[in-house]
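Posting this for the archive.
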Amino acid sequence: MVTDVFAGQYHSIFKGRGMEFDEVRQYYPGDDVRTIDWNVTARTGIPYVKKFVEERELTVMILMDLSGSSFFGTVNKIKRQLAAEICSLLALSAIENNDRVGFIAFTDRIEKFVPPRKGLRHGLRLVREALYYRPTGRKTNIANVLEYLSSICRKRTVVFIISDFYDDAYQKPLSIANKRHDITAITITDPREINLPSVGIISLVDPETNKKFLIDTDNPFTQKEFYQNAAKIMEERKRIFSRIGVDNVDLRTDIPYAKTLLAFFKLRERRLR
């Protein structure tokens, strides 16, 4: 998937900011006179211009949520597994484009930080961490990981946040971070977080607080309230992203992610033209 599809799409929409000097060449009519290299021109007596190329190299940071809710899943895989696949795909696409990639696993604390580096060996280390790292925390604190990101990334960075965003009070820190960095929020949802199956009275456990409670899934009022609450959370999440200008990709554990992610890349590419 990286070599056939995503590396090219990644390259076209995540570009360096600025130009770096490449070489000088002789001036030709029509060249921008502002690019004339006066030192070389004075030394040779012939006008020369500076040639620049795009500064392609980027720093990419992948922030992956490992809170208790990421270990929920009822269809093809748990959310943690899907997040690990997305993390791997993005990391290897960046490595393929010779970018530096780093990784932060977080819950309500910083669980694991891998500094940005290049190379396939480093990329495979990120894949391993995304798949197998065992967190100690259970809750979610997005504001905390964004504050940590700002402390380690002083220059503009391409940032992917992979999370279900079951958290409060992250709007302001996300807005601040987005002014410095190029942030994309990748949200992961399981269908049972939206619609309850009708299976009678069941016992549920909140994976982040360990609170237990009984719920009658056959009750139409309960099902309606559950759906409305889930829809409200998702709508509020989208509203926050839209308001502060953060790109957002919604992924689900019951829908193949390749087409959704590729559609986002193409949409962003058209927007940047």
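Residues 23 and 51 are 5 Å apart (CA to CA). The longest helix spans residues 220-244.
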